[in-house]
Amino acid sequence: MEERVYRLVVMISGFGSNLQAILDACAEGRLPARVVLVVSNRKDAYGLVRAQRAGVPTLYFPFKPYRDRGLDRTAYDRDLAERIAPYHPDLIVLAGWMHILSSAFLDRFPGRVINLHPALPHMFPGMNAIQQAFEAYQRGQIEYSGCMVHIVTPEVDEGPVLAQAIVPIFPHDTLETFEERMHQTEHRLIIEGIIRALRTCLETPTDPAR
Ligand code: GRF
To answer: Is residue 175 part of a domain?
Structure first.
């Protein structure tokens, strides 16, 4: 990887522990990158506090005003992309971002939006994946779960996988202990996924639209 500091935009909706893992990895030199903007669609997302503490600009951009005006996701996604573009991100990282992004957003940053999902490829797409996996284990349908980082495509939680890891489930686990193990693994995997994506970025010519 060439000596360059990559520009990351991180999008969150909640606690932001994965954002923290990214901020820490940047600060400790484990990631040749800088978080240039943190976006949240929820005002009370604790991740916004983490960003402010790290001196990173934040953008709160909710969907509700669009819905209230009878506008659909396409209008929201297009405007959101418009707000992010001036930050010239090399990579946009969805780290607990709870809003499905359409082509109106993704086409603006082709191949440069990645997502962290707490399940293995093609298993438990969408919401509550951790709980779904835990319940499937209880029913004897799976023996383990995992998490992955993938390039975002319009299909929810699909798209080329950049990194994945198995997360075991044990008979004595509660949902909470399993969840904790999942998050520990995610905090490591998100960094691995970003590094993999940045390497890919280097091989892809920069989109002139950016
Ligand atoms: C993570 O489990 C992520 O995989 C999921 O939402 C959670 C976000 O956690 N999509 P945090 O906000 O990073 O703590």
So the answer is: yes
Q: Which atom of ligand 1 is nearest to the CA of 21?
A: 13
Check pocket membership of 77 for ligand 1, CB cut-off 6 A: no
pLDDT in tens, 35-68: 999 999 999 999 999 999 999 999 999 999 999 9
Strands in 144-151's sheet, in edge-to-edge order, are 58-60, 33-40, 6-12, 91-94, 113-117, 144-151, 161-168
Residue 209 has pLDDT above 90, yes or no: no
CATH number of the domain bearing residue 73: 3.40.50.170
117 is catalytic: yes
**149 inside domain:** yes
pTM assigned to the model: 0.94
